[in-house]
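Notes from the 1:1 (GR / supervisor)

We went over the backlog. Supervisor wanted to see one worked example end to end before approving the batch request, so GR pasted a single chain during the call. The sequence is below; no edits were made to it. Supervisor asked that the structure be written out right there so they could see what the output format looks like.
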Amino acid sequence: MTTYRYRAATVTGELKAGTLEGTSHADVLERLRRLGLLPIEAIETATRTEQKTHVSAKTRQGVANAIGELAVLLSAGLTLDRALAVNIENITDPALKAQFAKLRERIKEGVPLARAMAEADGLFPPMACAMAEAGEASGKLDVSLSRLAEALDGAEALRQTIVSSLIYPVILLIIATSVILMMLLFVVPQFEDLFTDAGNKLPFATRIVMGASHALRSYGLLGLLALVVGIVLLWRWLRQPAVRRAVDRNLLNTPQIGPLIRNIETARFARTLGSLVDGGVALPTALSIAQRSLVNTHMGAAVSKVASGLKEGGGLSGPLAATKLFPPMALSFLRTGEETAQLGMMLNRLADVLDRDVRTTIQRMIAIMTPAITVIMGVLVAGTIASIMSAILGFNDLALGP
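Structure output shown during the call:
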């Protein structure tokens, strides 16, 4: 799908602008009409959703910090050009400094900030471009950028929490696997000659360990090659849209894992949508942009259908509830926000609540996972040693047997 920048008018004559994804120019125009808008123009951008530039965690955090500083400078009364100049001086990452320098050059050429951000090779998420455009339209660019910085900080904090929480279990798994491999490759073979003549007289556990060691030494490289090829083929297979959608759908129904994925995705979606709504972006446009923050393609497709059928001023909680994909608590927050006309505030509160729930759930899972991995590693190592020792201790019996 391709991203298009559009301008359209509402039934009251108000001008709207933003970005929308579609398979073609005609598809985007039709989607705008279904949103109750009268299309004026739709221009294809240079960025395609399938070719997004990878942005590292360091760069994402640097972008959030730079946008937050830019908001402060603008609120202090500096012009956008001067604020960007000061901003560039304070950026330490050379690559990010160069990107913001290009951004300033485009601003000096008279290009609006939102458009310049959209042309920045995927450096800024769609939410950033939409909020900048809303801020420019309302004359409150500093406020919009401040909210944008908070949203980016929140999203990055959740992402880092998940990654950091998984570091220790992954290291433990690597160590456990390394210990088992070293025993099978270097320790067990030392006893192979000793037990050669024993044959079937060896204990069953000892024969299993010796067989595993022999298989690993004989076919280990071939097995590793087959594993790598299998992973590559699996990765390519999972990249097919239909397969990815089916996998994502099944993940949502997996016990323990499914609810966690729902909360993570809903938190990210709520924070993005809340920031866009608070920034003055029209709800249909905000929903279309927030949908891109969903990594789970099944949830993303459901929200995309809701966004396509949502009319200006229409309700949101009902269509989202009909998807049966979002937690009941999220729907409750949405209904409260719609009834009190505080949708943006309630979405941000929902994101905070879900973030805390996600952190708590991950901590509990790791609290269980860590000792479980330790016990399994201990059992495997102890079992290997015990199988060898039992054969050694019974060696005299084996030698005296018929």
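Supervisor's comment: The chain has 16 helices and three strands.
Batch request approved.
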